[in-house]
Amino acid sequence: MGGKTVVLGLSGGVDSAVAARLLQEQGYTVYGHWLDIGLGGREDAQQVAETFGIPFSAGDIRRELEASVMGPFQRDYLAGRTPLPCARCNPTVKFPALFRRAEEVGADWVATGHYARIAAGPAGEPLLCRGAHTNDQAYMLARLPQHWLSRLVFPIGGYEKTQVRQLARDFGLPVAEKPDSMEICFIPDGDYAAWLEARGAVPPPGHFVDRTGRVLGRHRGIHRYTIGQRRGLGIPAAHRLFVSEIRPETQEVVLSDGTDLMADTVWGEDFNPLAPLTEGEELTVRLRHSKTETPARFYPEGTGGRLELLTPARAPTPGQLAVLYRGDWVLGSLWITRARRIPG
């Protein structure tokens, strides 16, 4: 079949629903594919497919999600890291499932409702680019292999969320006013600590300590904290306290006044290149899923690399993703392993 045939990840939300209609307007033959993680939602996705008259299918990804995302998510917290499950899921579970469905129906293209874009580079090569949406979702796609980019379509990448909502109303979609989904799909209530505890094998309670080792109080397990956290500590002090370090080997959480959280160098592992870059060139880096970008220079080291930050960044956190940009282009990404702090 091929040609203008596309498999669309149809979640049942407003973004993928609008993407379906835009793909049809662009002349694609659309196949909707819903991914089952065991928490329901098929009915909304199927209703969208019926509204637009597109074939609908479902794929069970629960086993892959457990092996590649949920299990590592739990192990990261046990090790004192702060994981980023969506960035792991996209290259290992979600997009592979959509590409498998594309092979089944003979489609050349795969699409999702992400706010990202694919643009042509200087030599005509496909480049991953940030979307127009204020919350750049290209960040979460920065682990996709470069050779997939030539087969990807992001129909809503040039729209803001408010525009997508209005398009959904214009199209008469039943999901036009449906709330946005939670960031972690397998923890719909957002309480990741309770989710970890329900699975068992969580870290035991331990001590809050200061930099000198003085005990400040007790905590309920290192899995409940992340570097830079201020809220929910429950420790009385003359000034605000922040999580400065997590020590899984002793189950200690180090608290400070926050002046020691700024870093000037970040190291990472498993660099995923998406566009050519020159060693040491000035670029920007996003060190967490937020709007903040920091000017930096990147130096490959082994299979990872080192980022020399031209402006200090607050609390780079092991387990999070460093994504490199040149303007709107996503140059690549690596998993943060450590940072060099500036003495407070």
From TrEMBL:
Active site location: 89, 185
Descriptive protein name: tRNA-specific 2-thiouridylase MnmA
Superkingdom to which the source organism belongs: Bacteria
Gene Ontology process terms (BP): tRNA wobble position uridine thiolation
Catalytic activity: S-sulfanyl-L-cysteinyl-[protein] + uridine(34) in tRNA + AH2 + ATP = 2-thiouridine(34) in tRNA + L-cysteinyl-[protein] + A + AMP + diphosphate + H(+)
UniProt-annotated location(s): Cytoplasm
GO MF term list: ATP binding; tRNA binding; tRNA-uridine 2-sulfurtransferase activity
InterPro entries: MnmA-like (IPR004506), MnmA-like_C (IPR046885), MnmA-like_central (IPR046884), MnmA-like_central_sf (IPR023382), Rossmann-like_a/b/a_fold (IPR014729)
Signal sequence residues: none
tRNA-specific 2-thiouridylase MnmA-like C-terminal domain location: 267-336
Summary of the function given for this chain in its UniProt record: Catalyzes the 2-thiolation of uridine at the wobble position (U34) of tRNA, leading to the formation of s(2)U34.
EC number: 2.8.1.13
Residue sites binding ATP per the record: 9-16, 35, 113
Domain tRNA-specific 2-thiouridylase MnmA-like central intervals: 205-256
Organism annotation: Evtepia gabavorous
Keywords: ATP-binding, Cytoplasm, Disulfide bond, Nucleotide-binding, RNA-binding, Transferase, tRNA processing, tRNA-binding
Site, Interaction with tRNA: residue positions: 114, 320
UniProt xrefs under Pfam families: tRNA_Me_trans, tRNA_Me_trans_C, tRNA_Me_trans_M
Protein family per UniProt: Belongs to the MnmA/TRMU family.
Gene3D superfamilies: Adenine nucleotide alpha hydrolases-like domains, HUPs, Translation factors
CDD domains associated with the record: MnmA_TRMU-like
